[in-house]
Amino acid sequence: MEKAVNEGEHREVRDDADGVWSGSWVAERLGVELAGDGRLTGLLGLALRRNPKRAHLLVSNVLGKHVPQSPSVVYGYGVELGRRVRDLLGDDEARRAVVLGYAETATGLGHSVADGLGLAPYLHSTRRPVAGVTPAGGFEESHSHATSHLLLPEDPALFTGDGPLVLVDDEFSTGNTVLNTVRDLHARYPRRRYVVVALVDMRSAADAGRLADFAEEIGARVDLVAAASGTVRLPEGVLEKGQELVARYGSEGSSAGAAPSRPVAQFPAPLEGAADTPLSGARGTARPAPTGPQPEYERIDLHWPAGLPDGARHGFTPAHRARLEAALPAMAARIAEALPHNARRVHILGFEELMYAPLRLARELERTTDIEVRYSTTTRSPVLAVDDPGYAIRTRLAFPAHDDPADGPGERYAYNVAGAGFDAVVAVVDSAADTPALHAPDGLLSRLAAHTPRVLLAVIPSYAPERPSMLPEPLRGPAFSSYAPEEVGWLLQDLSDVTLEAPTEEREEAIQSGGAHYAESLPVEYQPTEQYQELFHAALKESAARIAQAVGVVTETVLAERSPRPVLVSLARAGTPVGILMRRWARHRHGLDLPHYAVSIVRGRGIDANALRWLARHHDPRDVVFVDGWTGKGAITRELAQALEEFEKSDGITGFDPEIAVLADPGSCVRTYGTREDFLIPSACLNSTVSGLISRTVLRADLVGPDDFHGAKFYRELAGTDVSVAFLDAVSARFPEVTDAACAQAKELLATDRSPTWEGWAAVERISEEYAIHDVNLVKPGVGETTRVMLRRVPWKVLARAGAGSDLDHVRLLAEQRGVPVEEVDGLPYTCVGLIHPKYTRGATGADGKAVSV
User: Fold this and answer.
1) Nearest Cα to 83, choosing from 221, 225, 229, 228?
2) Treating both helix axes as pointing N-terminal to C-terminal, what angle do 724-732 and 575-590 enclose, rounded to 10 degrees?
């Protein structure tokens, strides 16, 4: 039978069936008072805690930690808070947000808030160190009995963005925990906005002012969202009085005071042995090996989806949630099938930080059956149990920790489960906690078996992030490349000592005969003649200002539209000089010192996945802007988009934008560009000697392993003809004179429709057919691509736009040197087009990088 239970549903939360508030016992004896929102006494009860720092404990009736509650109520409160946060932020900011919950009590609440928010990933702090996962931060919870919180995201980039950070705790009492968290994270990953979410806001006026002052100090906005608000009024000496009560009633067991003055409807009288029974062995000391009979229970195989995290200790994304939603009905059905046929009241018991998965299982069981389902979890928080309807913690089961905790062995607790009349209890733990201690005679399963007719155990596989490969730091000049070390970091491996070059004919013959990929070898570097070098310098002098303006336009567009602090990632090697110039412009115009890297992308093989993994661990993928020199027909644009899509599926890392920022976009293939004119970019005239003396990238199985960056060579021996830095300096020297024009042009472009038309691709298809080539991969449009054909391939002919002037001087010279005809064509959409010979051309390669047989 399926019951209608809405995610945001809030059932009435009542004090108790007979109208007794579950905080009255403490309030009367300590003089504690809850003041404020009228809903507070419905949401909260009071208990006494075994804690030298605070006497009282606010016990939530809707958190699902200490008080068994309908899972729909527990989940509904969190989801509703998440929806309020989404309304506060708006969808755009919500997509950039990260939700952080606090261990252990708020791990499930934070997860539910993230579900309500819907668009953001979720992480909760943890007190369980995990081997191989480096903490991204940590903080202290000053009032807690166990203070150290670790942040262990599988993807460190989770915190590197500047979107809102949503911090979720069950109660907001003094604000110290939030302040400690924000102070730690803001120092590492500053952002503009924080949102604090809690079931109840119980701060004093002074504490509220402290948070406001802190927000002003760090220059960030801090919003607060809570289901109810008020304050706790504490009389003088409350700590000492509380400790006296704990000492007195703790020694008397759970039957403190006389028998209940009224019948207890929610919790029947506790069974014998359900009292606050101390364990043998002091906290922090070793226990003797368990002996005696093992408890009887049935193990349920949930068929938990492979690879799905059991919680958010290492991060939980909307994609993870979608997988869980799809699997929940079948898992709940397996639980229902294992329950006694006459079970009418069932408890799902989660485990410490493992709150969310048991909650969702409980809610699904409640939704799809007519069983009365209740949910709570075990805890490490020591609380006095008093069997009185005016006290929030009626019974307590104590048992030894069973997950090999970092702080050593000790007691753990399940509250209000014994004596509650459950026909069955389903204990849900992760596999790290499925230890001999769990099954021992004094363990949790045994304690539960004494107080319910049936105990079932469901074990969820503990998610363990794969250990990251030990990728090296980027290579930098002068050890690798002639660029200054701050100009670019190369996410490549140095293959300078490997012989990869071969004469063009020999190299292409090997490619064609063996089906080898073009990226498995290198052509011999072209050495420019004196006449060609003169052409380069003349072209640079003439076009420096034009290039400088295009650099300014594309950089201003990126800063305005893509990210205020972009991480520039050039596609090696043609994109590298452009990326450096963009970095220089950002410093010249805005005083920004942007990170810049160069990565390899290979046609038919995609972008270097290890480079992407390195970037994701060190930066927010959403800030990454891929940079290239120019577009031809858009093949690399398409290659990058496909590669990133495949990477997202294989690694689950999202946020990389496939849109390339280019200096020139004559093919109309991208939205982010400096110009769409096809003109001479002097960096296209040469190979390594204008690209930091770095070769084209190499991808060969015997040289590049699965955990390696793609390779490249550093041609130190060509330093005498290197003009790499001279090119950069000549262009950046013109920045001051073109700044106004570049900024005005960028502003104009930002207001126009820059959607790609792909007219370049259409032109290439037309030329391919007109010249009977019948393969667009052999048509290389634009000045830059034509130059590459002349320097690296076996050219057939050059098509030049009629009337093209000095932009083609270097192409004409190369054509003369190689005996290639230059044919003038009217109406050519590009300044020129280079054609690779379609008949038995050893340089002809198809879309997959392999030789084409015609």
Assistant:
1) 225
2) 40
Q: Which residue has the tokens 């490619």?
A: 511
CA 824 centroid distance within chain = 53
Q: Which two tokens stand for residue 670?
A: 């991208």
Gap between the Cα atoms of 58 and 55, Å rounded: 10
The per-residue pLDDT for range 741-763, each reduced to its tens digit, is 999 999 999 999 999 888 778 88
With beta carbons less than 8 A apart as the criterion, state whether 304 and 327 touch. yes
Alpha-helical runs (H) found in 134-237: 176-188, 205-218
Cα separation, 625 vs 618, in Å, equals 14
| Rounded Cα–Cα distance for residues 752 and 383 (Å) | 64
The DSSP code sequence of 329-372 is HHHHHHHHHHS-TT--EEEEEEBTTB-HHHHHHHHHHHHHSSSE
- What is the C-alpha to C-alpha distance for residues 458 and 304, in angstroms, rounded to an integer? 10
Q: Using alpha carbons only, what angle is made at residue 628 by residues 627 and 634, rounded to the nearest 5 degrees?
A: 120
Residue 680 to residue 785: CA distance in whole angstroms: 11
Q: Looking at the predicted structure, is the pLDDT value of residue 162 above 60? A: yes
- Give the residue carrying structure tokens 């539910």: 112
Tell me the C-alpha distance between 546 and 543, whole Å.
Answer: 5
Query: What's the CA gap between 356 and 376, in Å, rounded?
Result: 11
Q: Sign of dihedral through CA atoms 88, 94, 98, 101?
A: positive
Residue 131 burial class via C-beta count within 10 angstroms: exposed 0-12, middle 13-18, buried 19 and up: exposed
Residues 299-343: tens digit of each pLDDT: 999 999 988 999 999 999 999 999 999 999 999 999 999 999 999
Strand-pairing partners, residue 300, are: 458
Q: Which residues contact 819 (CB under 8 A, 6 or more apart)?
A: none
- Residues 158, 98 contacting (CB under 8 angstroms): yes
Q: Measured between alpha carbons, how far is 43 from 22 in angstroms, rounded to an integer?
A: 10
Rounded CA separation 784/180 (Å): 54
pTM over 0.85: no
Q: CA–CA separation, 673 vs 689, rounded Å?
A: 25
